[in-house]
Amino acid sequence: MTPATRHDPDLPAERPTGQAMLRGARGRCPACGEGRLFTRYLKVADDCPDCHEALHHQRADDGPAYLTILIVSHLGAPILLASFIAWRPSAMTMILSFGLGAIVLSLAMLPVIKGGMVGLQWARRMHGFGDEGAHA
Fold first, then answer.
1. Which string of DSSP letters, residue by residue, matches 52-70?
2. Per-residue pLDDT tens for 51-105?
3. From the centroid of its chain, how far is CA 35?
4. Are 128 and 120 in contact, with CB atoms under 8 Å apart?
5. What are phi and psi of 61, to 5 degrees?
6. Would you say the C-alpha torsion 99, 105, 110, 113 has a positive or negative sign?
7. How far apart are CA 100 and CA 118, in angstroms?
8. Ranges of each domain in the chain
9. 3-state DSSP call for residue 7?
10. What is each CA distance from 12 to 51, 57, 89, 92, in whole angstroms?
11. pTM
């Protein structure tokens, strides 16, 4: 994009992807960074309570769950192998400790990943986030 077209009022304002994803990962509105993104554990608010940006367009669907499973399993597998080689705990100890660890880590990571994904969709104007006009 040339500098002359960058300031064209007909073009929508640029939305910084990294900033929007970090705001979403923190559970905040990707547009303003102030309003709460979630009304419940994983329920995205229809609108930001502070800047009134429409958030109902988000289509995260199963993406955050797949990414959470991918990350948790890639973190857990090497630790599981290393702890088994180092200490040789019983099978029940391994099942209980790593099962509980995987559940806790998954529950902690799921809202973070979903918020980041909503921030990405907002910044890239995906799924209707660019229809109302520019809101940076």
1. --B-TT---TTHHHHHHHH
2. 999 999 899 999 999 999 999 999 999 999 999 999 999 999 999 999 999 999 9
3. 16
4. no
5. 50, -125
6. negative
7. 28
8. 17-123
9. coil
10. 18, 18, 58, 57
11. 0.85
